[in-house]
Amino acid sequence: MLLAACDEELLGKILRHGKLVFKVKEEFYKGPKMPVEGAIELIKESTIVNLVGTNIVNKAIEEGLVHPEAVLKISGVPHAQIVKI
After folding, report:
1. How far is CA 31 from each of CA 8, 11, 21, 54, rounded to the nearest angstrom?
2. Which of 8, 64, 70, 78 has the fewest Cβ atoms within 10 Å of its own Cβ atom?
3. What's the total number of domains in the chain?
4. Which residue range(s) make up the domain with 12?
5. What is the DSSP string of 19-74?
């Protein structure tokens, strides 16, 4: 199961870092709004996860789902991916 989650204020934004352009596209990230705790439960059930934003990434780190060293920052915004094999 694929899950894409972002902090609400980032939806539709474009993040830039040098030549890197990262679009937080509504077509990919928009879904039902929920508290971060609800998203964490979905992350636990998913096999591929794409996270963008301070709130969701920090909570995933706190829950032991993402290693802090695996987080990239794009324009200062945390981005993490999880792949469960």
Report:
1. 10, 10, 22, 18
2. 64
3. 1
4. 2-83
5. TEEEE--HHHH------HHHHHHHHHH-SEEEEESHHHHHHHHHTTSS-GGG-EEE
Among 12, 55, 4, 70, which Cα is nearest to 32's? 4
Domain CATH number, residue 59: 3.30.1860.10
Question: What is the β-pairing status of strands 48-52 and 2-6?
Answer: parallel
Q: Which of these, 6, 18, 14, lies nearest to 49 by C-alpha position?
A: 6
Segment 27-70, tens digit of pLDDT: 999 999 999 999 999 999 999 999 999 999 999 999 999 999 99
Rounded CA-CA distance 42/44 in Å is 5
